[in-house]
Structure formats: C-alpha cells, structure tokens
Amino acid sequence: MLRWIKNKLDSLLLFPQEDPAPKLPPPTKSLDQKLNYIKSQFRESPDVSTRELRIGPGGKTRAALFFVEGMVDKEALGIRVIRPLVQEELYKNIEDTPLSYVEAIAKHLLLSVEVKTEKKMHEIVECVLQGDTALFIDGCEDALILGHRKLQTRAIEEPDSERTTQGPRAGFVEDVRINTALLRQTISSPNLVLEMTTVGVQTKTKICIAYLKDIVRPEIVAEVKRRLNSFKIDALITSGMLTELISDAPHSIFPVVAYSERPDKVASKILCGRVAIIVDGTPFVLTVPHLFIENFQVPSDYASPWVFQSSVRLLRLFSFLVSILTVPFYVGITSFHQELLPNKLAMTIAAARMAVPFSAIVEALVLAFFFEILREASLRIPGVAGGAVNIVGALVVGEAAVNAGIVGAPMVIAISLSAIANFVVTPLAESATLLRYVFLLLVGFMGFYGLAYGVIVTTLYLTSLYSFGVPYLSPLSPVIPDQLGDTVIRTPIWNRVFRPRQFAKDRKRAEFRLTHQKQNTKDENH
Fold first, then answer.
1. 324-372 pLDDT per residue, tens
2. How is the beta sheet containing 48-55 ordered, strand by strand?
3. Cα–Cα distance between 212 and 216 in angstroms, integer?
4. Contact between residue 211 and residue 276 where contact means Cβ atoms under 8 Å apart
C-alpha cells in the first residue's frame, strides 16, 4: 500500500497532469457552434481552411466547407460542389422530395462521387485530416463528407529492392488506395476482401487487410485482426513498426513476417491462402504467415523453365550458407585444424599470414567491422558517390591493408566472398550478418566444435519458430510430402495442384487435362 502511494506521488511530481482536451460538442444544428469548435482546435494551423457560403433560394441558408489546403482538389470542389450549391434554379429539384434537406442536396445537387453523412464532430475532423471535405449546413445536424482528395504520390515504377528479369514492372507506392487497386488489378475476384482499419492515436494510420475469403483459413484472418486490435500505439509510420508489434517472435533475428513491394508477389501469396497487410504511407506490404523457405523464392522463378530455376534456387541456398560459414570456416581451419588442409595450400596460407601481427579471429573481426562501416557509408551517401566509396574502400584500402601486413590476402578473399553472397538472399541479409559474427566468435574459442554447436542450436531454434501459428520450417519440418515440390527445388507448374494446407481451406489449385499426342503427317510427294 505504501509503495503504491509512493509511486502515485512520484508520477504526479514527475509527470504533472496536463490540461484536459477540449470537450467535444454534442451533435448540434448550429453552424456557428461547429465553426467555433473548428477554429478553437486549429487556430494555429493555417493549412486548415473554412469557406462560408450562402446557398438555397435567395441565398438565405448559411453553409461552410471545411478542408485542409494541399490535400483537396480545389478545382473539382468548385465545379462539383460550390457551383451546384449557389445555383438557385437547381433547388427546384428538391422541393417535393421526401428526403431530408441534407440527403436531397447530396443526391440531387452535388456532383461528387463519394458522399456520406456524419454527425459526430471527431469523426468529421478525422475524415478532413485524411483529405476529405466536410460540408456544414446551418440548421442541419448531419454534415456531408465529400471525397475530393488530391494527394501527392510518386509514379508507379519497378521497385529497386526486388528487380526481376521477367514479369511485371509495377511496384507499390505510399498510397493505400493505389496499392489496393494494384491488387484488384491482379486478382479480379469478388472473393477478394479488403477490410480497412486505423492504428495510431495521433497518426490515424490506415491499414488494409486483404485476403481471399473462399481460400484462406478463417482462424488466420481472426488471428491477424486480434493482433491488430491488441495494442494501442501513439504513431505508426512504417510497416516495419507493425512487424514488431504483430510478430510471433519479436526478438528473433529471422523474419517471421514477409514484406514485398511487388503486387504480383503479394497477389501470389494471397492466392495461396495468406493474408496481406497494407499500411498507408509505405510501399512495403506485409504478408502472413511467412515460411523460412520463402526467403529463397522470387517471382522470376515461375517465369522460366523449372529445371533452370531449380538450379538457381539451389544457388541461392548455397550462397546463404557461404555468407554465414565461409569466414568462420577459414578461421577455424587456420587456427585449430590446420591438418585438414593440403600441404601446398597450408604453406600458401602460412606464407600470406607470415607478416600479420594478429590472430585469425582478430583479423576477421577487424575486416568484417571495416566492411560494415563501408556498407553503411555507401547506403547513407546519396547518388553515385555511394558506389565510389564502395570501390575506393574495397580496392584501395583493402590492397593497402594487405601490403602493409595488417591483414592477409586469404582473409580479404573470405570476407569479400561472404559479403557478396550475403546480398544474394536479400530478406536474410541481416540475419546472415548476425549469424556470421556469432559463428565467428564460437569458432574463435572452440574451433569446429563451436561451429557445429552454433549450427545445431540455430537449426533447433528455427524449428521452434512459428508465424501466426504455422511452423516456420514447414513443409520441411514437419515434413509435408505433397508440398515439397516448391521448396529447395521448383517442380513444373502442372505438378502444383494443391495449395499449402497450413493456410488454405480450399486446397484445389488447378486441374490439368492436357495430353500430348503425336500428329501423323503424310508427305504428299510419296
């Protein structure tokens, strides 16, 4: 009890009570009360504007438009809203209508495509701050919300992070409505459900949940909604923030929520029974559940012959192993297990390390740390200068370090090979970097025994991960035989008849009846 009183006093002293927020006015028919509330809320915001009008026969009725400068198409507002409102002859169309005055104006006068009524003041303010226009009419309790948005967005173009040699070139943008339209363009099915919600007390960020209701399992959709409603946050700026809030393993170094900028990739996952989460203000769309094997799959895998793309997918898997094991393997074999090397190779490595004053583990950590500085600098420096920094750092500084005897040439080769292979599998680049350092430290203390221990623990950890209730390593662990055709290798399209049972309730994907027949031809000359 005493501790509770002490904590209460400390909170009052450290965080004094702020002035309560202005009380929302009750629904009213008075235009002056509504305008006074708006002016009291936005007196320090010059971008929030009100435009008073005289409408109706003889201009006897007062009205006002409430909007945000820069978010509204003023030309459309003047032609489709203001001009019909001030033309007296148009009001003859609503003299004998049984509708209310507001509804009659909305249906018979205004030329706006999006029109809805709202009476709660806080809802009206939220709509206006998102780009809509509110029309208040004196003597009417309801306000009309008009959709005349004109937000600045960039053009639809191919995303830099997911370039492909074949396939569509379109990429998501920062507007949630454009992104949902791109999904609709790819999946022209009435079963595609797009549910909107908002997250963020201050930002009111719009989030869209997309799924196919006849394919996805209902429990996955229910779990996504539950997690989105299970937290209250001040602001949600990017989809990466949402990833941490809804992830099964927020402390994991492996991504259990996938993201993509490509509409075709997101659409293909929705068609398999997954749920897409589109966050307004970011071009990266999240998809759940996410499996480990998906990190090695790209859209171009299904645009080329399956034999070639299967070999490419194996190459990606091999590159991931190279990125995390090359440097630890080199340190372990040169520091603890030299007997495993052929004599000529051992003598060559020993000669290269003759003048190096550091042990192999210190040499690897110094070079790896230098590479991380170089990579971070190249990302932060804009334009062509970033590529120049990479070239200068890799060639000039690396060569100078070898000539000065600070590091050996074999270590530079190992670090370079590991760094290049790290970018082959982009979704796992950060995970591979952390694993490389962990394995490097284990090898530095215990040799190959430490490396084996790290690999075993990592594998066991992967088997314990889940993504929205689905095992992260499935269909490899647990093994699902009918889904192994699109894992390490890619089988032909005609062999992929069923959807993954972890996500889809309707598993039948396609049905093939194509048969190949030989055509008998006769030579007319014989």
1. 999 999 999 988 888 888 888 888 888 887 878 888 888 888 888 888 8
2. 48-55, 61-68, 133-137, 143-146, 115-118
3. 6
4. yes
Q: Bridge partners of 504?
A: 216
pLDDT at residue 226, as a whole number: 94
Total count of residues recorded for the chain? 526
DSSP 154: P
Single out the residue of 62, 279, 252 nearest to residue 173, CA to CA.
279
Q: Coil, strand or helix: which one is 287?
A: strand
Residue 188 three-state SS: coil
Please give the Cα distance from 264 to 259 (Å, whole number).
13
Q: Mind listing the pLDDT tens digit for each residue in 384-402?
A: 555 556 666 666 677 777 7
Q: Which residue has the tokens 């998501």?
A: 172
pLDDT tens-digit series, residues 129-157: 888 999 999 988 889 999 888 877 788 88
CA distance 501 to 482: 10
| Structural domain boundaries, residue 93 | 31-146
Q: How many whole angstroms separate alpha carbon 292 and alpha carbon 294?
A: 5
Amino acid at 488: V
- What type of residue is 370? F
In a domain, 368, yes or no: yes
Structure tokens at 189: 């099915």
Helix axes 239-246, 218-228, angle to 10 degrees: 110
Domains held by the chain: number: 3
For the residues of 338-370, what is the DSSP string, one character each?
GGGS-HHHHHHHHHHTTT--S-HHHHHHHHHHH
Q: Is 231 found in the same domain as 337?
A: no
Residue 93 has pLDDT above 70, yes or no: yes
Q: Which of 204, 417, 199, 194 is nearest to 325 (CA)?
A: 417
Taking CA atoms, 299 is separated from 173, 212, 263, 424, 444, in Å, by 19, 20, 10, 15, 39
Whether 397 and 466 share a structural domain: yes
278 is a domain residue? yes
How high is the pLDDT of residue 172? 92
Interacting residues of 145 by C-beta distance below 8 A, sequence separation 6+: 114, 115, 116, 117, 118, 124, 127, 132, 133, 134, 135
Residues 70, 74, 80, 83: is their CA dihedral positive or negative? positive
pLDDT at 515 over 70: no
